[in-house]
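Feature request disguised as a bug report, sorry. It would help if multi-protein outputs had a clear separator. Right now it looks like this:
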Amino acid sequence: MNTEKQQSPVRAGQLCISLAGRDRGKTYMVTGQDEGMKFVFLSDGCSRKVNNPKKKRLKHVKMISGVESSELENRIMQGKKVYDHEIARIIHLFMADKALLPHKEG
């Protein structure tokens, strides 16, 4: 009997949340996947830049369904440049939309 959880396919430009490690609870964008489909490469545009993504086991992240950037996905798949500030902006907008960011007063 297979006890592994089935996840939807991983796509570049999709947001996910880390489930394990020091970065547990942190939101990232998928910028790539290894050939064996066991690891994903993650960037947040701040501490993990596009040129130095975090390599994390697929089982240690939770994909956020329905939240991806098709424009960035296309650029990543075509090998075109994706900028850190674009990834950070998308994550920030998602967090603000979900009321996960503290609101500034004044």
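(second protein starts here, but nothing in the output says so)
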Amino acid sequence: MYKKPSSVRSTVSVPGVSVIEFASAVMPDSPAEKSGLLKGDVIVKINDQDVGTVEDLQRVIRTKKIGEEVTILIFREDEYESVKVKLEERPAQ
């Protein structure tokens, strides 16, 4: 299967939440960083629940417990990929 070079940006529109939109998504030592999420990834589902907006993402995450592992379906470089994320307490800001 052909995989486009990472320097070529996708023009495909995929419903979901761009990691860039979710401000705290890829902070150093965060669960997102530990799981390999990257800026530019689009979060499509969490545990098979559709995520179309930041509010959807927050609603789904609020139903989970600290320490729980979730499976996140992302769209990256024209391909879907699943990543596992262990939820942690959000640091004080």
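Even a blank line would do. Unrelated, but nice: Residues 57 and 63 are 10 Å apart (CA to CA).
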